[in-house]
Amino acid sequence: MKKGIDLTEGNILPKIIGLTLPIVGTSFVQMAYNLTDVIWLGRTGSATVTAVTTAGFFMWLLLSIFYCTKAGTETLVSQAVGRKDFKTARQVSENALTFAICCSIILNLTVLVSSGVLLKFFKLEPEVMGHALAYLRIVSFGMFFAVINPTFSAIYIGFGNSRTPFVVSSMGLVLNIILDPILIFGWGAIPALGAKGAALATVVLNILVFSVFLFKLKSDSSVLERFKLFAPIDKKILKKLLDIGIPVTIHQVAFCLISMYIGRIVSGFGTIPLGVQNVGASIEALSWNTALGFSTALGTFTGQNYGALKLDRIRKGYYIVLFLSLSLGGLATIGFYFFGSQIFSVFTSESVMRSTGALYLKILAVSQMFMCLEIISAGGFYGLGRTRPPSLTSVLFTGLRIPAALAVVSFTTWGVAGVWWCISISSVVKGIIVSSWYMLELNALPTLNVGSPANRLRPEEG
Question: Is the residue at 453 inside a domain?
């Protein structure tokens, strides 16, 4: 396949690994954006770290909303590519980006205007509130670009080209690594800006990544010929994008909001537990992003083979990816359980924060392999265009964390550790349910109506 990987032919394992490694690399690069901020800001004190990681919840919320276009684009582009229908792939991409740009303008202005009201949700201490407010107001300017970039990436991944998103994201990381210490601590005539400096670095890198993606899609070497950034909306394409993407958005937004509420519960135990949970979530992203990379690759592999009607390859691909992901999940379990204090020492020099962080990671270690089960199986569902089952399961059982955590706080003496156990146990349950459901789906594949309009979208039809 020109400018991509044809996942419908050849040995499955090397094809999946070739697609997965750059996606995992991109996930780690995106995670490194946040960790770079946390590592440098950790030298300025726990208040600044807590402020920036708390404000990061709202960045996460915006990105979650735009999973709608990301998920729909990956699924529909990969299925169209599997059918060798490149005209549909281009039309899907243009509609997804046009819709995303229009929505991002509205949402980012909302965050910019209401930053103070949003942050009051966490009942932060005055010093933490000041840093968080300054950070969120600045970084919201760059979120217009940040929420569009995943859709750009989804276009390339749908074609089986995961290398380009990795290279472009790596360029942004290099810039962030250079700018962070300069803007946070000052250099020469540049004053020390603290949290504001981290926000400015984030804005600049998001603009850079957006510009490079746009340049490449408009160039002669683009995966899409005659690509237009702004195109007339095709109602049929948009409907299918939303049918696939809205359940994913509901899942991601619900997960974010629930995590924010859990953060509010944890904040009742003080600044250090809240900071530990926020930093710990960034650390857990090591395994989460790895599993997500495998999941995205599986979704593209499944989509291309679903479009090509090669159902046996879908089954084989799932079990190969599942084995690889669970192996890495096992390594995360060992690392988190036995080396939690050492891992946390990278992000803070405060002994209380390190010991509390070690407890957090030890509890979360129990659920790492089950988290991989859930994420990988969700990727398989996405490739089939069936996003409702994993989204429904996640929203339900992640939502149960709130009443469980409130019960722990009200009726037990387990403290913040009990709240963290609620998070870990719910991940175990979700992993078992989603993976079992997807295995049943795989067994039913021969009876699915693969040729239905819902799964073989062609704009020229109807």
Answer: no
Distance (Å, whole) CA 346 – CA 44:
14
For the chain, how many structural domains are there in total? 1
Answer whether 180's CB lies under 8 Å from 22's CB.
no
DSSP of 23-65: HHHHHHHHHHHHHHHHHHHGGG-HHHHHHHHHHHHHHHHHHHH
1 occurs within a structural domain:
no
Task: Please check the confidence at residue 401 and state whether its pLDDT lies above 80.
Answer: yes
* Phi, psi for 187 (deg, rounded to 5): -160, 120
188 domain residue, yes or no: yes
Helix/strand/coil for 187: strand
Give the domain extent around 341: 12-447
Residue with tokens 């490149």: 86
Place of tokens 């490449």: 216
**pLDDT, tens digit, for every residue of 199-246?**
888 888 888 988 998 888 887 777 777 778 788 888 899 999 999 989
Tens of pLDDT, residues 290-317: 888 899 999 999 999 998 889 889 999 9
- Residue 174: CB atoms within 10 A of its CB come to 12
What digits encode the pLDDT tens for the residues 101-123? 888 888 778 777 777 777 777 76
The sign one gets for the Cα dihedral 196, 140, 273, 292 is negative
Tokens representing residue 119 in the block: 């942050």
* Cα 209 to chain centroid, rounded: 17
287 domain-assigned: yes
Most confident residue range from 25-39, 212-226, 228-242, 385-399: 385-399
The encoded tokens of residue 120 equal: 């009051």
